[in-house]
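Hi, here's the filled form for the chain we discussed.

Project: internal
Contact: R.S.
Residues: 163
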Amino acid sequence: MKRGQKQKQLERQKKQRQQWMMIGLVVVGGVLILIGVLWRQSGSAAEIDLSDPQLVAMGEEVYNTYCAACHGFELEGQPNWQEPYADGSLKAPPHDETGHTWHHSDASLVESIKLGGARLEPNIGVSAMPAYDGVLTDQQIAAVLAYIKSSWPAEILEAQSVR
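And the returned structure, exactly as it came back:
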């Protein structure tokens, strides 16, 4: 093989190696992004442990600081919570067993806290609930949910656990 041909063949091989390296980097990057998305969607990294009195106490403190002004200090929600305001926006529902909080999975409740009213589809309504992602840690969110759920009777806890 002549020197010129050999040089061209070496350059082609080098280009192919570079292309395979780029494909490999794109695949690895895609896998890492997918892992990050799946990890993020897995809900709270902190466990919602109702049997942990410290977690429940922390949850009560966080709830009283961030949630009670709208949802009530006794988890009772706003009066006539099922009727929207005159502008059509939704009132804060109760978090005790009389509301619908227990109709949602833990992952859905975590998302509700993190995204606030922005999570709602337009056909559901408009909510003034703020987003707490970046305000509350995953542990604080788990603590709030532990506090809320600690007030529910056993049958409500059981019904919610299958959601």
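Let me know if anything looks off before we file it.
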